[in-house]
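[job 0412] stage=fold_complex status=start
inputs:
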Amino acid sequence: MAETRTMGKKDWKGLGGIVVPLLATVFLLLIPESLGHAAASETPQPGSECLACHGDKSTTTTRGGKTVSLYVDGKRFAASVHATFGCTGCHADLEGKDFPHEKPAPVKCGTCHATEQEQHARSLHGKAIARGDTLAPHCVNCHGNHDILPVKDPRSAVAPLKVPFVCGQCHREGTAVSRNRPIPQDNILENYSESIHGEALLKKGLSVAPTCATCHTAHLILPHTDPASSINRRNIAATCTKCHSQIEVVHRKTIRGELWEKQANVLPACPDCHQPHKIRNVFYEQGMANADCMRCHADEKLRRGRDGKSMYVDSNEVSHSRHSKVACSQCHSEVNASRVRACETITHGVDCTSCHDEVGKLYVASIHGQLNGKNDPNAPTCKECHGTHGVLGRLDPQSRTFATNVPELCGRCHREGQRAAVRYTGRQHEIISNYTESIHGTLLKNGLTVTATCTSCHTAHSVLPRTDPKSSVSAANVPTTCGRCHHGIEEQFENSIHAKPVNGSTKALPVCNDCHTAHAIRRTDEDNFRLDVMTTCGRCHAEIAKSYFETYHGKVSRLGYTKAAKCYDCHGAHDILAVADPRSHLSRANVAATCQKCHAGATRRFAGYLTHATHHDPRKYPFLFYTFWGMTALLLGTFVIGGLHTLLWLPRAFQMRRELRAAEAEAAAAIEAAASKESPDA
Amino acid sequence: MPKGEVAERQFVRFTRLQRILHICMIVSFITLALTGLTLKFSYTRWAAVLSHLLGGFENAGYIHRTAAVVMFGVFITHLVDLYRLKKREHSSWWSLVMGPGSMVPNRQDLSELVATLKWFVGWGNRPAYGRWTYWEKFDYFAVFWGIAVIGSTGLTLWFPVFFTRFIPGSFLNVATIIHSDEALLATGFIFTVHFFNTHLRPEKFPMDITVFTGRMPLEELKRDKPREYEALVAAGKLEEKMEEAYPAIVTRTIRAFAWVALAVGFSIVLWIVYAVLFAYR
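[job 0412] stage=fold_complex status=done
writing structure:
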């Protein structure tokens, strides 16, 4: 027996070479006898000894008060796969027994079919037998007994075309099993027969179409809740792809099929959409499942027990959403369609990455995703921005993510005083209002949807703080980010002295937002920008900006004269280069043309005007220095002499004033005296 | 002056043209000072306010150049007037320059300067001044000097493209310094020393309006310009220089104008002091 245990199921064909010691003698005796029978009769009858009794249809016995036929069809046995073993090949306990023998012991198929026996014992059928369940099937219930044919023989009881009926003996409506045993599926045989699989097999005779055993296996049939089951959520994809290989490729549009096996707990499994036994060759746009869900969720009063959250789903909202063609269960995976409440098996929230995997990876790496990973309550997830059942594409004007709605969307957290703004410690404040008043915001308000919104610079899903080198708004990446729209400007900038490769300096160099600001970006031809730019450049070029304000251009600029030359009018804005660079606007070859922009007819000699001159530097500008101090000396000298002259004069002037007043008083008195002298005469 | 009474006869010191030129000079000078100093002291809050009041810097620039044209006009008109004076009263330029009414300083002025200084410190009596005192002559030539220096540099800055065909561009920087510092000198001097010397001296306080009316009381002539008075009396020409005084309405209007000019002038002085001493950069 030890040898036979190791035999595989295909080894029975070559069994002749492997002889069980106990049966060896029987073989030797039987073979010549059977050959003899064959010679004697048209239908050789192996085990004719037994058939002497069992070949008679009237042979019966009484068991438990019932008459049971003991007839064995000799012809069919002779045609069976086991014919060569004779009766005692299986009924070994009857070897050498006198007739009539007593009831034989149950046949042990596992003697030869050890693997199948072992699988069966582990299966739910085998366990039911062990429990003493009388409805549980033994080998014979499916395979038959004396007339077992090779499985490839179309007449075999377990030939593909017959399997549904073999299983259907129990698993169809009305049987003892279907009525008395807790089997979650109903109308199994009927549903299967009408499914694309059943139709192919039963109506079109396609013998390779899957039968019950293809999915459930022949012997190791386990409930789907068992992790080892071929129809367990973890294994179902592997099971289906045995036939539907590469089906994941055609499912890429809806979900990333290659994740079926890796993330079976998250992704919808095959039967979530293609219900078991009902698999049809139709498209599951709305899916019957949706109707099932809406049986409960269409109720506006539906509340979740745990926290009272409304569980109402507005089917109208869903049907107008981007996901109108997506079944409920494609997002709300883990449902079990066989339950009355299919959703009760759900343990995880909706995971959008099952379909939107690339975006999901970006999100996880973003600051939003990082915070979410730390379970930060403020971290936005997909639904905070995209909504839930009513999700719309970003090109739909009604969508929250439509360009004109983006600032408001981000502003829900990033507006001053809101969640994100409160915890932010950087330099950017009044982000939303600054943006709204900026050139980008103004254009957006005017309906120009291609203008920059929050996501244009910060990206939608890879949002990172600017201190992160990977951030789209990090100093190194800002030119590229702005250059996505302002490409020509970026090209100029990358060749300017402010670009790292050109400059070669290790110091921090300015990028777009250092001059234009991040959110309050203004038109550069607006007065405010033109008047503030010197301060902006002066943040790095302090000395040169200071000296600019000592000359004409600077002084009038300070008085609000916007037409006077500003830094970039002479040096160039984005194509700024060192003055020594021949390509610079201020190089010997170009400087006159630069001045001519304002001063028509300006010459090279005109350009000799020192736009950054100061009269405080005797070494750099000696003639200005000495002119200034010469003039100052003249001024002081004049004032000192004039002042002294005046001061010395003052006492005398007051003296004169007193004398004058005294003389006037005297004269007045004299006139009065004369008048009074005259009056008596008059 | 009570009605019916004969108007007081006063000595005529300035011709009508001279008085008109002086008024034009006041207006253009104050205008130039205000608009120019706005630029010079652009770093003060005052400058920003003023620039705004003047309708922005660009407007201030137009006003400045218009006033400059007026100033040039005053200057040229005066030169033409001098030429006519020479033709009328003098046989040659030399006679005009060296004559008794000449503005050119001479030995007499030098001795009067010394005598004046002695009078100041109490070493002598007040000199008997003639038609033009030495400080009046200084003021007169200060204007000549100022117009030459400020005018020429101003024209350079007005037409830089033209002038840099002959001079280097950096001379514009030099011109800027000279123009603005000389202007500061002129403004400061006129609004302090000149105001005191000719209008605000205690014995004439609050103001001497001779330069606007062209007339001064005979008493004043006797007191201030005794030498001229004596010379006129000796020559018997005093009476032909006497005319009726203006009615009160005219003098009141003149005083109102003069007060405004004084107030603006002093405000500018205060601004300059503030800008130079407290806000200088």
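[job 0412] summary: Chain B has a mean pLDDT of 90.
[job 0412] exit 0
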